[in-house]
Amino acid sequence: MKFFQKEIKLKARSRGFHIVTDEIEKHLQELQEINAGILQVFIKHTSAGITINENADPTVLEDFESHFNEMVPENMPYYKHTQEGPDDMPAHIKASLLGNSLQIPVTRGKLNLGTWQGIYLAEHRNNGGARKLVLSLYGV
Amino acid sequence: MKFFQKEIKLKARSRGFHIVTDEIEKHLQELQEINAGILQVFIKHTSAGITINENADPTVLEDFESHFNEMVPENMPYYKHTQEGPDDMPAHIKASLLGNSLQIPVTRGKLNLGTWQGIYLAEHRNNGGARKLVLSLYGV
Amino acid sequence: MKFFQKEIKLKARSRGFHIVTDEIEKHLQELQEINAGILQVFIKHTSAGITINENADPTVLEDFESHFNEMVPENMPYYKHTQEGPDDMPAHIKASLLGNSLQIPVTRGKLNLGTWQGIYLAEHRNNGGARKLVLSLYGV
Asked: Does the global pTM surpass 0.90?
């Protein structure tokens, strides 16, 4: 059993959903050493999330942003945590709805994603900055 | 440390939530070789999800479907990704809300689920077809 | 590769979101044996969830509870699973939205969480009682 771990930083992105599969994979030259395993992607933040979804049509990314803003609106009258701006508390809730880690099977040296699957960074802040990920790769 | 991995196909199901624990376990004869470990279940699709919830009362499954349709309705005016039908974009969003992988502890050769826990396939398309899963099982 | 697994019980908490990082870590003296690895936290229940979010301002916890009650209200007319009380079916849905497992990287003997990240127990029942977790810790 092999175990690799590293911390990387994704470049800063605007608020919204972004495909980051390539940016993550370029840090994973160790993938070729794994015949069967798991890649874990962990985001070290509480106002951005990661998820896997459709990698082909850019309007899917836009519709995700529109609907997340509908499901978790800014300025709800019951929000008490408001001192970091109207985008902050919704960002926390959205981050937990998507979750902060992905586990992806690795098979014969490659991420074993479905044809239409890509890794999304969900940037929920207006100015989130660069986001730190911990990548853990293990298997045989 | 042992590591097993295989790809399986779940039979096609109607739109809604379905308990698939048994259909998954019948592919896992290797479970008995693991004293302490993890089963990872990964769904290779972007319009169906998997989750763990109540395994006893079938109305729970129906209420999940009703509420997911309420939280993520079809035909929202802001959807741009509409060419694959009104059930498609909501299916993508629902899939990410539930997530596309499960990690379940394995203890003394069995899934260490709580008494009331079962594995759900959440089929969000009207005609989703058979769904592919990657099962990764590892431990000592 | 080392693999540790144990079952623990969190003390009973009131309905709402609670930071439980310390209560979990005190069971993890084996952390110091792991240089690079993963901690998996699995909750064996279908009406409470676990997630990772902001560990500093208690009003974030309150806002989570308020918004989850807004997104998944009690007494929706379409709920059929009502015999265990009005808080039960929403609790099931909320639990699946957050998910029932966390995977956290372990680096040089410590949970590799971001500065502002803590582990939340999301208790969705009015009287949920003590909640059982399975902790699986593995790595090199």
From this structure: yes
